[in-house]
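Work Package 4 report. The design task specified in the project plan requires that, given a folded chain encoded as C-alpha cells, an amino acid be chosen for each position. We show below one input record used in the internal validation round.
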C-alpha cells in the first residue's frame, strides 16, 4: 500500500509551483475582481448587482427594496465573496459624489461626502436608477453571452449591452496585482457627442475629439487646471490632472471678507479637509483665518473661512491650495479589460471598443427579432390555412380519436409543420370571428414588413451604424446635462483676479519693508493747499520709502540681492487703512534665507518697449526687455547671474533712451547713455558698467529723470547736490569721473540719488539719529566741490542710509475736478513724532 502511494507522488519545484499559482491568482484578481470591462465599464461585482436587481424586478418605477435582499441574491447566485464587498459596491453606485450618474437609487443613509459610512444593509433600500436600466436594455434578446455561475445552478451575463459608454461616463477605480486603474467620470452629453464623431469620422484627430469632449467632469465640481494632462491621458492612457476647489469671496460684517468653498476636488473628504485647515490655522502655518464653519445643507456645500481684517484673500487661497486638499491631483490610468486582457487604452480606442460592442449588440438583437418574427409568421401562415379551410379542419379534428391523430391528419393533408399544427389545435374558437380573421391578415402583413426591415438591417452595416447613432442621441437627449466641473486652459489662467473688480490703489512701502495697499477712495477729496489728512504712523526708525498708484490687476516686481525676481499682484498685497503699517514683504514672498529685497518695480503691462536695467555691487550691468518677465511664477525666476562674492544692488525701469549714472563707495561716478548697454536675455552675468579700484564697490545706480539733480551723501554727514550735466557722458565700463572727494572730513560715499526740488529726504545714522528735510533746501553746487554739511553727527557716529521720501500722490476725487492732497510736510513730521 505504501509503495502504491509513493508511485503517485510527483516531485515539483516549489519555485515553479509558487510562480504558477501566483500567476493564476493574479489573473483571477485582474479579470474577475479589480478591472472593468471596456465594453460596459463594469467590474464583475457591479455587473452582478445590477443584473440581480434587474432579475428581481427592482426597477426605477417600482418600490424600493431592502438592500439586505439584494446582497443576499448576489451572494446566493453570483458572487462567492463577503457580504461587505457586495454592499460597499452597491453603496458606491448610489453616491452622487462618487458617480457622475448614479446607477442605484438609494433610500436611507448611504453615507456622505464627509466620509460617513452608510447604514447597515438591513436599514437601507434601493432600486435601479433609470439610467442603469439602459445598461441592461435588450439583455433578454440574446444580445450578450451568459456563463454558468460559481456552482452551475444559474447563468450570469459576461457583459451588459450598455446603451451608453459607461466606462467613461462613470469612470472606475481598482487595484489589481501589479497594475491599477483610475478612470475619471465624464459628462454623458460630451461622451456621446465624441462617440458619434468617432462613428462619423473614425480618422478624426484627438484635437478634434477634445473639442466636444474637453476632459473629465467630476461630480463634485471645482476646476481642472490645464489640458496637457488630459491630452496625455487621452493619447497614452496615463496622465495627471490638477483639481482645485471653487472658492468665492464674500464681504462680511466689520469690513472683513470670508472665503466660501462651494465645490471641492473629487474624492476629497470634506470633514477631513476642514479638520486639516483648522490644524494649519492652529499651528499658525496659515495666518489670517479667524473662524471656520461648515454651513453645508441640502441646498449644497458651503464651507466658510472668515478672514481677519486687512488680510489678502488671494494670499490665503494660495496657502490653502498649497497646504491642503483644496488642490489635489488625479492620476488618470485608462486601464481596462479589452478582449479579456488588461490594456492601457487611449480615448479613441475606448470609444472604438464601445462602438464595436454596440454594433454586435444591435446585430444580435436584430437577429433575435428577425428569428422571432420568422417564427411568428410561420405560425400565422398555418393559422391562415386553417381559417381558409375551417370546415374541413373542424371535420378532421372531430373525426380523430385523439389529438395526436388529429395532428398527424392535419399535417399530412395541408403540408403543415409541427409548430403550425399545434397552433391550429390550440386556436380558440373566438379566433374564427370575422374581426379576429382580419387581425390575422393584418398581423401577417405587418410581419412581412418587419422581416424585410430586419433583414435589410443585417445586410447593410450602414443601417446598423444609423441605429447606434439614433439610440445614442435618444440617451443623450433624455439623460444629458451640463458640465459641473470647469476646465481652465492652464494653471494660473483662472485666478481670483476674475472675481476682483479693477480698482485704483495707493501702494506704500516703508524703509523696513512693510507694504500695504489703500483704495484711493479713502483719501478724502480737498482743494489744493489744504492741510491734508493723517496717514500711516510708522515707528520712529521707519518711514515711507516707496509710493506708487496702480490698479488691483497691476503687478509689482520684486528683485533680491541674489538676482531673483518675484511677482505679486496688487490685489495680493494686504489692504489696510491709511493709519496702518501693512505687512512685512518677506511674509508675502518665498525668499531664501540669505535673500533680501533690493528693488521694487510697479508694472501695468509687460511690453517690449520698456526695459529693466540692473547693477551689481561689483559694477556689472544688465539690461533686459520687460516682456521677458511676463510669465509670473510664485517661486520666482533668476533675473541675473550673480557671482558668489557679488550681489544685486539696484534695478531701474527705463524707456530705452535714458541716461545711467553709477556711483561708487570711493567717490567715483560714470555717466553714460542707456543705448551703450544692449538688451540681453536672463541668466547672464551682464557687462562691465564701471571699472572699480581694488577696494571700491558700487553703492548706487540711477536712471536719470529729465531735470533731476544728483545728490551724493557721505558717511560723515557731508554731501552735495549737483546738476547731472556736470557729469560728462562717457562710455560704459570706464573709471568715470570724481563724484565727490572722499576725504577724512567727508568719509566714504554711502548713497547717490537723483532728486527734484519737490522730493523729501530722510537720513539715518548708525546711532539712530534721524533727520528729515527737503531737497530744495540744499542748493545746487558744482561737481568739483567737497560738499557741505547735511547733518551734524556726534563723535564716532556715521550715516548709514539715505532715502528719498515719496510723497503720496494726488488722486482725483469723485464728483469734481478737485484733487486730494495725500499728506504734507507738517503732517508727516507730526506722524514721525
Amino acid at each position: 500500500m505504501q509503495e502504491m502511494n509513493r508511485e503517485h507522488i510527483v516531485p515539483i519545484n516549489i519555485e515553479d509551483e509558487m510562480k504558477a499559482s501566483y500567476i493564476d491568482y493574479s489573473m483571477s484578481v485582474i479579470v474577475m475582481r479589480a478591472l472593468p470591462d471596456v465594453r460596459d465599464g463594469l467590474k464583475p461585482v457591479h455587473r452582478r448587482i445590477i443584473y440581480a436587481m434587474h432579475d428581481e424586478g427592482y426597477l426605477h418605477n417600482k418600490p424600493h427594496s431592502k438592500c439586505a435582499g439584494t446582497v443576499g441574491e448576489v451572494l446566493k447566485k453570483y458572487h462567492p465573496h463577503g457580504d461587505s464587498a457586495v454592499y460597499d459596491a452597491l453603496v458606491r453606485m448610489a453616491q452622487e459624489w462618487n458617480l457622475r450618474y448614479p446607477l442605484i437609487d438609494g433610500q436611507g443613509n448611504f453615507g456622505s461626502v464627509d466620509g460617513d459610512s452608510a447604514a447597515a444593509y438591513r436599514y437601507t433600500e434601493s432600486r435601479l436608477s433609470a439610467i442603469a436600466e439602459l445598461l441592461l436594455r435588450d439583455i433578454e434578446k440574446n444580445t450578450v453571452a451568459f456563463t454558468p455561475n460559481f456552482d452551475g445552478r444559474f447563468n450570469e451575463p459576461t457583459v451588459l449591452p450598455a446603451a451608453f459608454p459607461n466606462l467613461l461616463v462613470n469612470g472606475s477605480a481598482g487595484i489589481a496585482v501589479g497594475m491599477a486603474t483610475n478612470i475619471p467620470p465624464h459628462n454623458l452629453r460630451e461622451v456621446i457627442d465624441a462617440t458619434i464623431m468617432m462613428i462619423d469620422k473614425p480618422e478624426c484627430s484627438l484635437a478634434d475629439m477634445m473639442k466636444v469632449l474637453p476632459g473629465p467632469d467630476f461630480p463634485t465640481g471645482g476646476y481642472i487646471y490645464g489640458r496637457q494632462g488630459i491630452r496625455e491621458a487621452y493619447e497614452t492612457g496615463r496622465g495627471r490632472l490638477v483639481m482645485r476647489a471653487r472658492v468665492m469671496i464674500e464681504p462680511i460684517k466689520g469690513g472683513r471678507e470670508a472665503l466660501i468653498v462651494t465645490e471641492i476636488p473629487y474624492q476629497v473628504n470634506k470633514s477631513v479637509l476642514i479638520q486639516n485647515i483648522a490644524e494649519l490655522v492652529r499651528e499658525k502655518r496659515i495666518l489670517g483665518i479667524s473662524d471656520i464653519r461648515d454651513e453645508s445643507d441640502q441646498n449644497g456645500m458651503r464651507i466658510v473661512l472668515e478672514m481677519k481684517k486687512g488680510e489678502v484673500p488671494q494670499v490665503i487661497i494660495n496657502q490653502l491650495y498649497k497646504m491642503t486638499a483644496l488642490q489635489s491631483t488625479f492620476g488618470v490610468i485608462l486601464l481596462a479589460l479589452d478582449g479579456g486582457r488588461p490594456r492601457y487604452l487611449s480615448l479613441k480606442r475606448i470609444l472604438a471598443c464601445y462602438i464595436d460592442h454596440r454594433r454586435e449588440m444591435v446585430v444580435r438583437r436584430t437577429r433575435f427579432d428577425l428569428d422571432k418574427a420568422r417564427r411568428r409568421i410561420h405560425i400565422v401562415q398555418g393559422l391562415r390555412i386553417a381559417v381558409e379551410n375551417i370546415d374541413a379542419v373542424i371535420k378532421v379534428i372531430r373525426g380523430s380519436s385523439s389529438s395526436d391523430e388529429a395532428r398527424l391528419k392535419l399535417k399530412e393533408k395541408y403540408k403543415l409543420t409541427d409548430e403550425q399544427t399545434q397552433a391550429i389545435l390550440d386556436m380558440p374558437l373566438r379566433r374564427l370571428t370575422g374581426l379576429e380573421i382580419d387581425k390575422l391578415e393584418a398581423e401577417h402583413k405587418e410581419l412581412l414588413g418587419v422581416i424585410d426591415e430586419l433583414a435589410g438591417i443585417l445586410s447593410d452595416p450602414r443601417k446598423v451604424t444609423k441605429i447606434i447613432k439614433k439610440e445614442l442621441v435618444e440617451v443623450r437627449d433624455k439623460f444629458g446635462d451640463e458640465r459641473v466641473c470647469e476646465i481652465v486652459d492652464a494653471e494660473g489662467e483662472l485666478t481670483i483676479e476674475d472675481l476682483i473688480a479693477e480698482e485704483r490703489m495707493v501702494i506704500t512701502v516703508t524703509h523696513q519693508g512693510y507694504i500695504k495697499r489703500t483704495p484711493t477712495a479713502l483719501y478724502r477729496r480737498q482743494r489744493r493747499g489744504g492741510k491734508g489728512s493723517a496717514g500711516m504712523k510708522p515707528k520712529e526708525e521707519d518711514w515711507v520709502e516707496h509710493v506708487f498708484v496702480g490698479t488691483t490687476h497691476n503687478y509689482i516686481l520684486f528683485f533680491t540681492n541674489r538676482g531673483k525676481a518675484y511677482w505679486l499682484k496688487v490685489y495680493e498685497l494686504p489692504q489696510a487703512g491709511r493709519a496702518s503699517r501693512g505687512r512685512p514683504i518677506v511674509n508675502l514672498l518665498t525668499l531664501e534665507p540669505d535673500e533680501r529685497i533690493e528693488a521694487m518695480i510697479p508694472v501695468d503691462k509687460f511690453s517690449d518697449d520698456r526695459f529693466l536695467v540692473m547693477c551689481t555691487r561689483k559694477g556689472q550691468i544688465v539690461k533686459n526687455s520687460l516682456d521677458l518677465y511676463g510669465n509670473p511664477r510664485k517661486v520666482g525666476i533668476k533675473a541675473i547671474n550673480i557671482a558668489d562674492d557679488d550681489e544685486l544692488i539696484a534695478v531701474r525701469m527705463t524707456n530705452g533712451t535714458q541716461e545711467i549714472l553709477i556711483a561708487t563707495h570711493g567717490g567715483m561716478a560714470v555717466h553714460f547713455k542707456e543705448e551703450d548697454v544692449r538688451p540681453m536675455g536672463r541668466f547672464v552675468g551682464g557687462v562691465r558698467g564701471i571699472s572699480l579700484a581694488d577696494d571700491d564697490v558700487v553703492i548706487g545706480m540711477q536712471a536719470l529723470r529729465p531735470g533731476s539733480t544728483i545728490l551724493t551723501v557721505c558717511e560723515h554727514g557731508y554731501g552735495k547736490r549737483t546738476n547731472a550735466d556736470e557729469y560728462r557722458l562717457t562710455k560704459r565700463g570706464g573709471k568715470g569721473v570724481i563724484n565727490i572727494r572722499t576725504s577724512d572730513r567727508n568719509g566714504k560715499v554711502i548713497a547717490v540719488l537723483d532728486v527734484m526740488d519737490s522730493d523729501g529726504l530722510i537720513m539715518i545714522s548708525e546711532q539712530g539719529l534721524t533727520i528729515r528735510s527737503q531737497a530744495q533746501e540744499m542748493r545746487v553746487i558744482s561737481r568739483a566741490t567737497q560738499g557741505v554739511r547735511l547733518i551734524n553727527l556726534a563723535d564716532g557716529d556715521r550715516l548709514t542710509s539715505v532715502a528719498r521720501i515719496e510723497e503720496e500722490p494726488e488722486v482725483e476725487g469723485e464728483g469734481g475736478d478737485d484733487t486730494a492732497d495725500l499728506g504734507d510736510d507738517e503732517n508727516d513730521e507730526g506722524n514721525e513724532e
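The two ends are 114 Å apart (CA to CA). Validation will be extended to a larger panel in the next phase.
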